[in-house]
Write a structure and sequence with these properties.
- The complex is a heterotrimer of chains A (160), B (370) and C (618).
- In chain A, 23% of the residues lie in helices and 32% in strands.
- Chain A is of the alpha+beta class and 160 residues long.
- Chain B is mainly alpha-helical and 370 residues long.
- Chain B has a domain of 223 residues: Cytochrome Bc1 Complex, Chain C.
- Chain B is built from 15 helices and two strands.
- In chain B, strands 1-2 form a two-stranded antiparallel sheet.
- The mean pLDDT of chain B is 90.
- Classes of the chains: A alpha+beta (160), B mainly alpha (370), C mainly alpha (618).
- At the A-B interface, helix 1 of A face helix 3, helix 4 and helix 5 of B.
């Protein structure tokens, strides 16, 4: 900034000075505000979020092996989508999308009869391979990969 | 200029300390010495493109911290960024809009340079490097579009790489090279991610440095000059002879005048980005399903004119014309023998350019509506 | 002693008179006695009722009997028991049937009727039949058919095939054509009309008042196969018009693919090259089968397990058809009903999964309607003709005919295919439940299911042919098919219906609200995938509750609806949160943009100052 000689009456200089100083302060404030406005999202973004995230390689832990004993099935959320995890003697631990292929109802596990049942229209699915046993569903339930590491059960969802 | 009245400020003391050691003064003096003719009207388009690139670089680095480039995880990681990461929606939306705006302003910068004949001597190579930058920018757009791995991304990439496959002779090989195989698969995603995050940034930064150094060396072109003169730069840096004072261009100080103008332009663009990101956040469709082709699938908007053009005409013509156009564009300064700068003295160039521009815009709109 | 001439004359006159009388009586005894009564007398005391005017073939009384009354007839005419009359009992029953198990009482069994022609005529000449007991052995062991078993030893074998179109016995049996047993030597000289005097056709076991269908042929008609030669086809294809059409149709059929050709149904010789030989009765040609004979003809193969096993085709169609309304009517002689060829085609018989087949599921309603929508045809049976129109407008009709969704029932799915008959009212729940199994399970626990035929079944509320999309409105209102039609609103049941309606109303409203919130959030650009899943859960609960309402139990329904309500509320809350988040962002945007605009203004002001300074300097 070039300097101005401090001559002349204070009255004439004062508005000039105050406006200048005001602008200077304002600009300084703006610069700081911009810096804050840019840095806040950046640093906030970098801070790890508290909510549970998708784990490495896109899989989600749905529980422990003791949560899925043989002969039982359970619907669990995997990345906001319902997934049914079943454990049968013949097929082992399997996971399928729990969205019925008929009209999109959420299927459940029929414990007495040991198959996957959609309560809406009595569609039945084979727990060993997701195929339709009877009822109106036109297509089998899509299977999702299940991995067991130690005592944790992981389901990988999403497309391959 | 120091006064002896008061102790210099902290900043000034720091500057002096470094200047003493590294001769910062002359260095900055040289860096900031860019000749800007007072009649120059760049509309700051090149600078804005640079601004957007910097925005993309920052937001891109941030996104890469949470993004996972495998088919199983990609879509979910984007969803995570949008829903769970603090300001994740903002960073991603800015990155998405920034990409579109960067391409738009890159093209507008090209048009400005063309219509002001700033590509003519002595700036031929600057233009060629600029075309390289354009291609790199489009490559960024193409590779980045696939990364969310949703239906739109997957199928737009499939369709877009088909266009590449239409090129004669090298087309099929080019297709396989792009896709890392015959279909779009996990390998395609890895390849595109590597291109988008490593290869293209380094290439573009390299070319950008060359471009900026060239501009720095020559200064901006004066749109009011009469003819292109290969000796322009040499003449300008020659010792001033008193004989022709009028020929010496009136200059605008790069710093602080032109820099201030650019900063204002960049601020305005920042506001535009914020508005767009808030009102129209980046969307995400269903995860990619290679077995389910959506009803309407098209490539990104900046390729729509090509796509629509190929739909309209037989393949041979459809491919030949864009390739010819591309070659013309790259080699333009060497094709264009007309030395005149003024528009009325360049009827052919202006006419061809205007028709091409209208055609491209029309085809883009047409492709968008269909 | 001398007799006078007058006395001798008198003596001779008297002797002649006595002689004459003797002669006359002898004559009368021999030939000129009044004819015996050749028919039983039960119910026929009024002789003149027939014989006066000669009704029904009864010989008219001669002129010289004028003035005599019924009581007088028996004075001279005795029931025929002697002379040239076979020692038949004076009954019109066949000379047999000691047991009444077959009650093969139908006199038509013996085409040689006795009642109308008068004397019981021996149906065969006595040549070679001197020993009556050779056939008419012991009492009871006479050639009467007792079922499908061969005749007992010594009796003439009975006819194992229907007689329709086969009046000329000797056409086959003289030379033993087509595997027909050849007539034995001792039958030489007999003609075809004599055969049935001894040989009876098999009678169907049912002797219910309704007649029974002719049973399936025990074996298909076997005719000489000429190693692929089929002259029937060769000629008929060239004849043009209907004849050529028949051959084209047959060639398209599944029978043609399996080498079932013309002669297998029509008889004849497919190797012969002249019409006379090929279509001769000697070759077994039967021409167009009579309508009533068609089921038996088709069943000759299709009811035979051994033949059908290789194609894995069931063989119960004939048995089902016999028990169907169509079959029973056909057995009574009604030829208007559908037989095999009416539905499956005569020549162009196609598999049911061939879209060109008339019994392809999508074509079945039109097929049934081709008769059942014909007012004139159905008038005599008193059957309504609006079923097809009702079905067409129903959800089943839409699904099958508009969307080609073959999960939807055709006429045959509910009424049966070959055993077609409308299900009884109490059977309806099982028919509908064969697809709507969940609903049937719920229904079977309800008070409606246990009320017998007076309480509603599926069709009561949903309609038989015009099944429409049910809505919650069925729970209220008093029109037919609504709960209120039977239960007044202030009754206990009416209150339950109303409470269910209110619960559905509330939950579906919550669902709609959630859906709208989600849509708003999406339009603002927010991602609400979790809320979409919750909405789907709510939908599951609502649909389950809709099926559960057939239990008529509030608690069961409320359980599903509560879950649905919770999911819907959760989805809505999430969507509203996303909308609030979006509003917050927009507010922040306004503040940021305002700041930038302000700053830009100041910077622009500074720029202007710099420009001015520049201008001054230059």
């Amino acid at each position: 900034m070039e300097e101005h000689p401090q001559t002349g009456s204070d009255k004439g200089q004062a508005p000039e000075l105050s406006r200048r100083r005001f602008l200077g302060y304002f600009l300084g404030f703006s610069v700081v505000a911009t810096a804050v406005g840019v840095l806040t999202p950046v640093i906030g973004y970098l801070w790890p979020p508290s909510k549970a995230a998708a784990g490495g390689s896109g899989r989600v832990e749905v529980g422990k092996t003791i949560d899925f004993p043989a002969g039982q099935g359970k619907v669990v959320p995997v990345n906001d989508k319902p997934v049914i995890v079943v454990n049968t003697a013949q097929g082992g631990l399997k996971a399928y999308s729990a969205i019925c292929t008929h009209l999109g109802c959420i299927v459940g596990w029929d414990q007495p009869r040991q198959f996957i049942l959609c309560p809406c229209h009595d569609g039945r699915f084979n727990p060993i391979n997701g195929a339709v046993i009877s009822g109106p569903p036109p297509a089998p339930l899509p299977e999702l990969p299940v991995t067991v590491e130690g005592d944790a059960v992981y389901v990988t969802s999403g497309s391959a | 200029m120091k006064t002896m009245e008061a102790k210099p400020s902290m900043g000034r003391r720091a500057w002096n300390w470094l200047d003493l050691r590294y001769k910062l003064g002359p260095l900055f003096e040289a860096l900031l010495h860019v000749e800007i003719p007072i009649s120059a009207r760049t509309f700051y388009l090149g600078g804005i493109t640079l601004f957007f690139f910097m925005v993309q670089a920052i937001t891109g680095i941030l996104l890469a911290i949470y993004y996972q480039p495998t088919p199983e995880a990609a879509h979910k990681s984007i969803l995570f960024i949008m829903n769970s990461v603090n300001f994740g929606w903002l960073i991603r939306s800015i990155h998405s809009w920034g990409a579109n705006l960067m391409i738009l302003f890159c093209v507008m910068h090209l048009l400005r340079v063309f219509f002001q004949a700033a590509y003519k001597a002595p700036r031929e190579v600057t233009w060629v490097v600029g075309i390289v930058l354009l291609v790199a920018t489009l490559g960024f757009g193409f590779t980045g579009y696939l990364l969310p791995w949703d239906q739109r991304a997957f199928w737009a990439t499939t369709v877009g790489s088909e266009i590449a496959g239409a090129v004669p002779l090298v087309g099929p090989k080019l297709l396989i090279f792009l896709r890392s195989g015959t279909e779009v698969t996990a390998r395609t995603l890895s390849r595109f991610f590597g291109m988008h995050v490593l290869v293209l940034p380094l290439s573009l930064v390299g070319a950008l440095l060359v471009h900026i150094v060239m501009v720095h060396q020559q200064g901006l072109a004066d749109p009011k000059r009469k003819m292109a003169d290969p000796n322009e730069v040499a003449l300008a840096s020659a010792p001033a002879s008193g004989s022709e004072p009028e020929t010496k261009r009136k200059l605008l100080p790069f710093f602080p005048n032109y820099v201030l103008d650019e900063v204002i332009a960049w601020y305005v663009m920042l506001a535009v980005l914020i508005v767009l990101a808030s009102l129209f956040p980046a969307g995400l469709e269903a995860p990619a399903n290679p077995l389910l082709t959506p009803a309407h699938t098209k490539p990104e908007w900046y390729f729509l004119f090509l796509y629509q053009w190929l739909k309209l005409v037989p393949r041979i013509v459809g491919v030949a014309l864009p390739i010819l156009g591309g070659l013309l564009l790259v080699l333009l300064p060497f094709f264009d023998r007309n030395p005149y700068i003024a528009a009325r003295r360049r009827p052919i160039a202006i006419t061809i350019a205007t028709i091409t521009l209208i055609g491209v815009v029309a085809f883009t709109i047409w492709g968008w509506r269909s | 002693m001398n007799l006078s001439r007058s006395t001798a004359q008198r003596l001779i006159f008297i002797a002649a008179g006595i002689l004459l009388l003797l002669l006359m009586s002898g004559f009368a005894a021999a030939q000129e006695t009044p004819p015996g009564i050749p028919h039983p007398l039960e119910g026929r005391d009024a002789c003149l009722g027939c014989h006066e005017a000669g009704l029904a073939g009864a010989p008219q009384i001669p002129a010289d009997h004028t003035g005599r009354t019924n009581e007088m007839c028996r004075a001279c005419h005795q029931p025929a028991t002697t002379a040239a009359v076979t020692p038949a009992e004076a009954s019109s029953e066949t000379p047999s049937a000691p047991s009444d198990d077959d009650a093969v009482a139908t006199p038509s069994a013996l085409p040689v009727a006795t009642a109308t022609t008068g004397a019981l005529v021996m149906p065969h000449s006595l040549e070679g039949h001197q020993n009556c007991l050779e056939c008419h052995a012991a009492a009871g062991a006479t050639p009467v058919p007792t079922g499908a078993t061969p005749a007992p030893a010594g009796g003439p074998p009975h006819i194992p095939h229907p007689l329709a179109g086969r009046e000329d016995c000797l056409a086959c049996h003289r030379d033993g054509i087509g595997g027909a047993p050849q007539v034995p030597q001792d039958h030489a000289g007999r003609t075809s009309d004599m055969c049935q005097g001894c040989h009876q056709p098999i009678q169907a076991p049912e002797a219910s008042p309704a007649a029974a269908l002719a049973g399936p042929l025990p074996t298909p008609i076997v005719h000489p196969q000429g190693q692929g030669a089929n002259t029937c086809l060769d000629c008929h294809a060239k004849l043009g018009g209907k004849q050529t059409d028949m051959t084209t149709q047959w060639q398209r059929s599944t029978h043609a693919e399996r080498d079932v050709s013309c002669a297998d149904c029509h008889g004849g010789d497919p190797t012969a090259t002249t019409k006379e030989t090929a279509m001769s009765p000697a070759a077994g040609f039967v021409g167009v089968p009579a309508k009533s004979a068609i089921p038996a003809l088709c069943a000759s193969c299709h009811a035979d397990v051994a033949s059908m096993r290789q194609y894995n085709l069931s063989t119960d169609q004939y048995a089902q058809y016999s028990d169907s309304v169509h079959g029973k009517l056909l057995a009574q002689g009604d030829t208007n009903v559908a037989t095999c060829s009416d539905c499956h085609g005569g020549h162009q018989v196609l598999k049911a999964n061939d879209p060109a087949s008339a019994v392809y599921p999508a074509n079945v309603p039109t097929l049934c309607a081709s008769c059942h929508a014909d007012k004139d045809l159905m008038a005599s049976y008193g059957i309504p003709t609006d079923q097809f129109d009702l079905y067409r407008g129903s959800v089943h009709g839409h699904a099958l005919l508009d969307q080609q969704d073959f999960r939807a029932p055709t006429c045959a799915a509910c009424h049966g295919t070959h055993g077609a008959a409308p299900p009884g009212f109490s059977e309806v729940a099982n028919v509908c439940g064969s697809c709507h199994s969940a609903t049937q399970d719920y229904y079977s626990t309800s008070a409606h299911a246990k009320g017998g035929d007076t309480s509603p079944k599926c069709v009561t509320c949903h309609g038989p042919h015009d099944v429409s999309q049910p809505t919650d409105a069925l729970l209220t209102g008093t029109e037919p098919r609504h709960c209120g039609n039977c239960h007044t609103p202030d009754s206990a049941e009416g209150k339950v219906a109303q409470s269910m309606y209110d619960a559905f109303d509330a939950t579906t409203q919550a669902y709609t609200d959630a859906e709208n919130s989600i849509k708003s959030a999406q339009e603002l650009g927010m991602l609400v995938t979790q809320q979409e899943t919750e909405l789907q859960q709510a939908n599951t609960g609502i649909i389950t509750a809709r099926a559960a309402q057939h239990t008529l139990d509030s608690d069961t329904v409320m359980k599903s609806l509560d879950e649905a309500q919770k999911a819907a509320d959760g989805a809505k809350a999430g969507a509203e949160a996303a909308i609030a988040q979006s509003i917050l962002r927009r507010r922040a945007m306004v503040i940021a943009v305002a700041g930038i605009v302000l700053t830009s203004g100041v910077l622009y002001f500074m720029k202007r100052q710099l420009d001015r300074r520049l201008k001054h300097e230059s």
